Amino acid sequence: MSIKSDKDALALRSQKLRALLRISIATVAALASISSANATESALGRPVAGMSVLSGIGIVPPEPVTIVSIEQIYIDGSIGGNRQVPIAGKASLGVDAQIAFTLASVLRVWGGAGGWDFASGITVPYVWTEVNASFAAGRVGTSSSDRASNLFDLYFTPIVAGYHFSQTAHISLSFNFWAPTGRYDPGALANASLNNWTFVPQVAFTKFVPKYGLEFDVVGNLQFYTKNTATNYQNAPLFTLDALALKKFPNGLGMGLVLGTVQQLGNDSGPVADKLNGFVGHDFSMGPIVTYDTKIEGKPLSASLRWVPSIVSVNRLKSTTSVMATATIAF
């Protein structure tokens, strides 16, 4: 084999390793759409605007590989006392919540068939949350607070299927679901579960512009909830759309901008939701992201940090402290 061929082979392998990292983070980033503010029960649904998109979200690499990822998410938000919020089977006068998630994820890329590449994974989340709410009893107002710290609902990704239109354009389709495995108390303000199944079909697209070191990523999904039988609360479906524009530098550093929105499709239903006219909501978030790619003992390592504060929020926790950090390694 010629020296040029050797260099080409090494360059191709390096490109594939980078792709492995991108899909590992991006697939698990979909998992980062964990409980935070949306106009569902407790104003705590699954998606967090601006947290589902990451570099290479549309890429499923062609080589079998196992990927491990750790993520940390922190949100500190509120809904003002002029709005009622369905929580603990009642309607509170506003709510304040701090939420911290630690997620450990494993993703396995299996290889390809028929021009498509396939992967699957699982995420085990741990949650710490503190919630404060006010309630009215006649003319008397009372305040309550609660705290929970436990394993959260498990997140499964049975299948991710990726297709490469070219070396610079990629798409992935996935089916994901949340299982109500966390501890749940219908009378508690803070819980480690939403007590429902949530099904999440998703599509993602990645486009590279190598000449300028630019990358553009978009991911959208629909979320369908089963009824919380403990409170008789039915969350309406949600539509989420996140986008990322990223500038990559030769030293492995990347800097960019994240945009995200969550839109409720219809009214929530149930005794409390009906009193609140369906508790319909939406929001929009925007903020910067920094990424870094390197290698440790020959194994590719990727990390990122983002801040995506709420810009507009209706019937959702409005947070100016929405932060996510990730670290991922491929074996």
What would you say about this model in short?
With 331 residues, the chain is mostly beta strands.
State the main characteristics.
single chain; Meta-pathway phenol degradation-like protein; disordered N terminus; FApF; two-stranded antiparallel ribbon; signal; Lipocalin
Low-pLDDT stretches: 3-14, 28-33, 35-40
Q: Which strand order spans the largest sheet, edge to edge or round the barrel?
A: 3-4-5-7-8-9-10-11-12-13-14-16
Name the CATH superfamily assignment.
Autotransporter beta-domain
- CATH class value: Mainly Beta
Mean pLDDT: 83
The count of β-strands is: 16
Number of helices: 2
Secondary-structure-derived class: mainly beta
Indicate the overall shape: globular
How would you describe what is shown here?
- The structure is a single chain.
- This protein has 331 residues and is mainly β.
- It has a single domain, classed as Autotransporter beta-domain (Lipocalin), CATH 2.40.128.
- Helix content is 10%, strand content 59%.
- It contains two helices and 16 strands.
- The strands form two sheets. It has a twelve-stranded antiparallel β-barrel. A two-stranded antiparallel sheet has the order 1-2.
- The protein starts with a helix and ends with a strand.
- The model is unreliable at 3-14, 28-33 and 35-40 (pLDDT under 50).
- Residues 1-39 form the signal peptide.
- This is Meta-pathway phenol degradation-like protein.
- InterPro entries: FApF.
Task: Please give the structural blueprint.
Elements: H1 3-29, E1 36-37, E2 44-45, E3 65-87, E4 90-113, E5 116-137, E6 140-151, E7 154-164, E8 169-179, E9 198-209, E10 214-225, E11 238-248, E12 253-264, H2 271-275, E13 282-296, E14 299-307, E15 310-314, E16 318-330
Antiparallel strand pairs: 1-2, 3-4, 3-16, 4-5, 5-6, 5-7, 7-8, 8-9, 9-10, 10-11, 11-12, 12-13, 13-14, 13-15, 14-16
